[in-house]
Design goal:
The complex is a heterodimer of chains A (324) and B (511). Helix content of chain A is 73%, strand content 2%. Chain A is an all-alpha fold. In chain A, the strands form two sheets. A two-stranded antiparallel sheet of chain A has the order 1-4. A two-stranded antiparallel ribbon of chain A has the order 2-3. Chain A starts with 15 loop residues before the first helix and ends with a helix. Chain B is of the alpha/beta class. Classes of the chains: A mainly alpha (324), B alpha/beta (511).
Chain lengths: 324, 511
């Protein structure tokens, strides 16, 4: 397309810009893998790679759900608690003799209801997203602990617990679950009108409303998707550790938000993608994994993660400013 | 005595330049963005103590000029002389230190601080590291009283109207030893009374020796205030005139090469069937409004800001709940309780504020244009990419939106082009009744003319238009029927040009 001379000096966002940013992130991930391969003996072992993919997969799914919410200029702090609560729910249902598939379906449904409750609080009660999801974060942990009386419920269903250890085509089945979530998520966010509505609501909800977008429904959709992704991760976690425990997944909401932000999502809303948070999640998982292998104090991992967030978001800021 | 003049003296030394002598001279001042010449080499001289208006279409280079003078951007070439000395004006701090200041159209103050705190912001009175709040409030109040503004210095800024906030911003600039004050479209959001107050302040600053640069789209303001006027067109300084030696017609032709008759383009089309009729409609901010719109006619709603016109439009559009009254759509009684219902009937609303209601500013132009029609552009689950692109590009070329691509963010566009995006949204959706709320605020004369011609095109297509405006010449010249609103009520109705400007104005103000 030829750029005609206009009296305004409007910047033209290049179509390749997002792809370029994605490639930079991917390059960073590969660089990390390369360095860890050089400096450790155990990184490129099948066992470690499987482990990395399993851990990264769960953060990645949470990050995709979180991204939908952040694009609407909201935030979902409850996802870690939902993961723990979902693990308790499925363990409790299985222990009560509910068959596997209905137990999983009910757990996912509870995720839907939690998301709907968040949206209800935001849309009908006028609460800030930060507050309502913070409230459910602490309440869900409490309810989970009440149900389990503070202990854990072990899961004796072998079909369920074997799933997380299984491989498919040599790749951990947990990793395949990322694709199961990411492909529909990509179609939803980038190819369907509902995705466009998420961006419009995040940019200017009044303008979206006056253009006929059902803003309330869009907000319900975003929070329900986030909580459902979290409940799904709860199932995967329960399968992986073989227990239901309300205190599991502590701090995962921050991992999810960090992955999303590293992946180029703007906390001001209206900027984000599906592929960015996925790569972001695996970058975080790699850093944690590598730090373990290098015998770095686990306290340092937290510091490194924080520093990384600052650096990447700063680079992204420079990129945006440069485009302007 | 704490007059404005004394406070001015606190900061700046006396004027080294006598009244009527050049205070700021631009010699070959030029600004390029890459290959684009936003301002071609300009020679303009500002005389000490004058009110110098600058007019031009959007994109003519006015904002570039302001940014250069206030140190926000750096010039590509040319020289600037301040009081006869060459200066850099490389940073805003340097410009302010020399006494060059600007008051912007959008108020850039802290809404959660008091009026006094805003006036002293960055320059607080202190004693031993603590702020002297009461002293500041008293000093600010003295300045406000002295200026004749009836404003409490202790009030929160957010409790004031936009117009009052503008006055605070002006008082703030006046207090800081400003010798050269630039007003960028200050009256865009002001009521008449507030504008009058602002004009008094501007004249008073002039009396105290401050040089004023006044940028406006409104010709009558330029003629009311200015001593001289400079015209910019496409980045070129076309000329400077003494105000007594020129007239609207000459200025407009300098700006756009078009005459005033060609701007208010009014075609009298045959009036068709009634599209919509309201009977005794009431809701938040308006009461008992009965009116109708027929195919082929423009129904103008005139009144001061807050008179209930926009509220009526939002009520009719289903954005606000109605408390009483009935709406008839093509003869049938309908209930419009949400925006989608209004759209499905065939109502389109280009709302009052582009920034707050009209556009998703940080999203691409294309997405904005397609927002109301994504359901039509989708095949089942996904959007048809080709039709999405085609629709956006068609509106961009039909409306002559000046952008290299549909992917440019709406925020990068000028006021006129942003308004076209809002309109494009509704052209792609299609409607029988178009409601345009203040469609030409902050829009240049050329684009105005284009928008008016577009009205005629819509009417020819069998649509009806409700035109809401605070700009009397516009509603007066264009409306087949003109309704006057005051305090939420429809107080008078006129047919085309059946009342005088004065009559309509008196009805709107209610004296």
């Amino acid at each position: 397309m030829s750029v005609e001379t206009t009296t305004e000096s409007a910047p033209v966002p290049k179509k390749g810009m997002n792809i370029l940013f994605g490639l930079i992130l991917l390059g960073l991930l590969l660089l990390l893998w390369l360095l860890l391969g050089i400096f450790t003996n155990s990184f490129w072992t099948p066992n470690n790679i499987s482990n990395l993919l399993r851990q990264g997969a769960m953060t990645a799914i949470l990050a995709v759900g979180q991204t939908f919410v952040i694009i609407t200029a909201g935030i979902d702090l409850s996802v870690g608690a939902v993961v723990g609560f979902a693990s308790v729910t499925v363990a409790w249902l299985l222990a009560a003799g509910v068959p596997l598939w209905p137990a999983m379906a009910i757990t996912l449904l509870i995720g839907v209801l939690i998301g709907a409750f968040h949206a209800f609080g935001i849309v009908r009660m006028g609460l800030p997203a930060f507050i309502i999801t913070l409230a459910t974060l602490t309440s869900l942990r409490g309810i989970g602990l009440l149900i389990t009386n503070g202990s854990t419920i072990s899961i004796s269903n072998d079909a369920f617990t074997n799933f997380s250890r299984a491989d498919f085509l040599g790749v951990p089945s947990l990793f395949w679950m990322v694709l199961v979530v990411a492909i529909p998520a990509y179609i939803f966010l980038h190819l369907s009108r509902w995705g466009r509505y998420l961006f419009a609501v995040g940019s200017n909800s009044e303008a979206a409303r006056l253009s006929g977008v059902n803003v309330n429904r869009t907000i319900y959709l975003a929070y329900i998707l986030s909580s459902t992704c979290a409940a799904f991760v709860g199932l995967l976690l329960a399968s992986r550790i073989g227990i239901g425990n309300a205190t599991q997944a502590e701090g995962w909401e921050l991992q999810a938000i960090a992955s999303s932000v590293i992946g180029g999502t703007s906390l001001f809303g209206a900027v984000g993608s599906v592929h960015g948070p996925l790569i972001g999640a695996f970058i975080l998982a790699t850093i944690n994994n590598g730090a373990n292998l290098l015998n770095v104090n686990s306290f340092w991992q937290r510091i490194i993660t924080g520093a990384l967030i600052i650096v990447i978001v700063y680079v992204d800021q420079l990129r945006r400013r440069g485009a302007r | 005595m704490t007059g404005l003049h004394d406070i001015t003296q606190l900061h700046a030394e006396g004027h080294p330049v006598a009244k009527g002598q050049p205070i700021l001279e631009l010699r070959g001042l030029q600004k390029k963005y890459g290959a684009v010449e936003a301002l071609k080499p300009a020679n303009i001289t500002f005389l000490s103590g004058e009110i110098h208006a600058i007019v031009g279409e959007n994109g003519a280079g006015k904002s570039t000029l302001i940014k250069l003078l206030t140190g926000v951007i750096r010039r590509t070439s040319g020289e600037v002389f301040w009081c006869g000395q060459p200066v850099q004006l490389a940073t805003p701090t340097e410009a302010i230190a020399r006494g060059i200041n600007a008051v912007h159209q959008e108020v850039v103050l802290c809404r959660h601080l008091t009026v006094a705190a805003n006036m002293f912001l960055g320059d607080e009175m202190q004693s031993r590291g603590l702020m002297r709040k009461r002293a500041m409030t008293e000093a600010a109040q003295a300045v406000l009283n002295d200026l004749g503004f009836n404003l409490p210095a202790a009030a929160m800024l957010s409790d004031l109207t936009i117009g009052q906030q503008q006055l605070v911003a002006t008082a703030r600039a006046a207090m800081r030893g400003t010798q050269f004050l630039i007003f960028d479209e200050p009256t865009a959001y002001l009521t008449r009374q507030e504008s009058a107050q602002l004009f008094r302040l501007i004249r008073r600053l002039q009396d105290e020796g401050v040089t004023i640069v006044y940028i406006s789209h409104r010709m009558e303001e330029v003629f009311e205030l200015a001593d001289r006027v400079s015209v910019l067109r496409d980045g070129t300084h076309v000329g400077t005139r003494l105000i007594g030696e020129t007239n609207d017609a000459e200025l407009i032709s300098m700006m756009i090469n078009r005459t005033i008759e060609q701007i208010y383009h009014k075609e009298h089309l045959p009036i068709g069937e009634t599209i919509v009729e309201t009977r005794g409609l009431s809701g938040p901010g308006f009461e008992n409004v009965s009116l109708s719109v027929k195919a082929g006619e423009i129904v103008g709603l005139y009144g001061l800001i807050g008179a209930g016109r926009s509220e009526f439009a939002l009520g009719l559009y289903g954005r606000q709940p109605l408390s009483a009254g009935e709406v008839f759509w093509q003869g049938n009684r309908v209930t419009i309780d949400n925006e989608r219902k209004a759209m499905d009937l065939g109502i389109a609303l280009a709302p009052e504020s582009r920034r707050d209601q009209g556009l998703c500013l940080n999203l691409p132009i294309g997405l904005n244009i397609n927002l109301p029609v994504f359901d039509r552009l989708s095949n089942g689950l996904t959007i048809n990419r080709r039709r999405e692109i085609e629709n956006a590009d068609r509106q961009i070329s039909d409306l002559k939106i000046k952008t290299p691509s549909r992917r440019v963010l709406a925020s990068a566009m000028s006021g006129g082009n942003q308004q076209k995006i809002v309109i494009g949204k509704w052209l792609s959706h299609g409607a029988k009744l178009f409601i345009f709320d203040e469609p030409t605020v902050g829009v240049d004369v050329g684009t105005k003319a284009e928008i008016y011609r577009l009205f005629a095109r819509l009417l020819e297509g069998g649509a009806g238009i409700i035109l809401i405006s605070s700009y009397l010449p516009e509603v007066y010249e264009l409306s087949d029927r003109l309704h006057v609103f005051r305090q939420g009520k429809l107080v008078a109705s006129h047919t085309y040009r059946s009342a005088s400007h004065e009559e309509v104005l008196t009805q709107a103000i209610g004296v």
